Predict the 3D structure of the following.
Amino acid sequence: MQITATKKVNDILESRTMEYALGENLAEAVELFGDDVVYKGHIASGKIDLQSYIRRLIIAKKTQVEIQELVNVWKPGVSTRQKRSPLEKAALSLDALSDEQFEELLKKRQAAKKAKK
């Protein structure tokens, strides 16, 4: 399997692609690395994925109870991302701003609007 990693180093985007055998299926992975390693990898990856999902639910202003209900039916490796319209994305971003940041943004938008006229 080819694994590619990319990193910006001194303002230059560096990329490397390496060959590494992870196994084509669960049986191969267990054969290559053993039950314990495969299980620990599953747990580590699952925790990260679940934390990311919970963070998205927090941003979406879900309650503790709502989040727990959604987590109860969550499955590792199954996409939970929902498509949002540009308006929904903007609203979520605006909700994350402090009052001061919102006021500053509003002033900038009003100034830009006046400059167009």
Observations:
- The chain has three domains: 1-28, 34-82, 85-117.
